[in-house]
């Protein structure tokens, strides 16, 4: 892709995302007045475009929002889930462990200013913090939708999954190869040990088998490369 084509793609993606943000934010206000939504979208999009990001980019943001649209019928408040998608990796530094907490605090600061009611703001922040474990409680429809949408990349076709794995490695380029393989393998084993990766009916039926196959394949490749 040449630079002009890349910029055009990025501009088109950003414009579409700005519209999606505005729609979700206005819906979450529940008829209340508020400031122009678009400066908030632009601030978040700038965060999602930071140079340390290789996987956690605006493409990831758009893809997770698409998955939420697929699963929206399972959520109690799909607009709160959509706002949580925007904030869940808004703060992202691969070398730090407090990204989710800092992202939740950002939501707690920005959303009331943007006209979102306190209860919805609290729900968005709760959902962002839930992405630390991706382990929603039974019956937590909003949490199940967010976590399934965020993990849906694991069920990608092989080529797309390989690109995702390579992008994760690039984000952790500061980690030596042996240490990365060991850490990544531990994450994969932890995921495989979960009784269920996906909690929504769609996720369990459509994504679970392929995701487990992809995880096992990556684990085998990591062991083979030693």
Extract low-pLDDT stretches.
1-9
Structure class = mainly alpha
Domain count: the total is 2
Radius of gyration, whole Å: 18 Å
- Judging from the principal axes of the Cα atoms, what is the shape? globular
Mean pLDDT, all residues: 94
> Helical region count?
10
| Topology, number of strands | 0
Content of β-strand: under 5%
Portion in helices: 55-70%
Order of helices and strands: HHHHHHHHHH
Largest sheet: none
Instruction: Tell me the span between the first and last alpha carbons.
Output: 33 Å
Fold and architecture overview:
There is one protein chain. By secondary structure, the protein is an all-alpha fold. The chain folds into two domains: 3-140, no CATH class; 154-224, no CATH class. Helix content is 69%, strand content 0%. Helix 3 (58-71) crosses helix 7 and helix 4 (78-88) crosses helix 6 (118-130). The longest helix has 26 residues, at 3-28. The model is unreliable at 1-9 (pLDDT under 50).
